[in-house]
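W.,

You were right to be curious about this one. When I first looked at the sequence I had no strong expectations either way, so I just let the prediction run and decided to look at it fresh. Below is the sequence, 52 residues in total, followed by the output.
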Amino acid sequence: MINMIQYLEKNPSLVPLLKEKKASLVGVTELEQKAILDSFDEKFSSESLIWF
């Protein structure tokens, strides 16, 4: 799954297509795909989190 996230980081134009269900990730379950897409959502972005 890490490889998929790295690929999407290099190809960010695919993220909206995945969110709109115009594309899919072969070999990835629906739950895994949701987790991957959530990682690209701004409110879950590590840049907006403060770690203590």
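Here's what jumped out at me. Helices lie at 2-10, 14-19, 30-39. And, maybe more interesting for your project: The chain has a mean pLDDT of 82.

Coffee later to discuss?

I.
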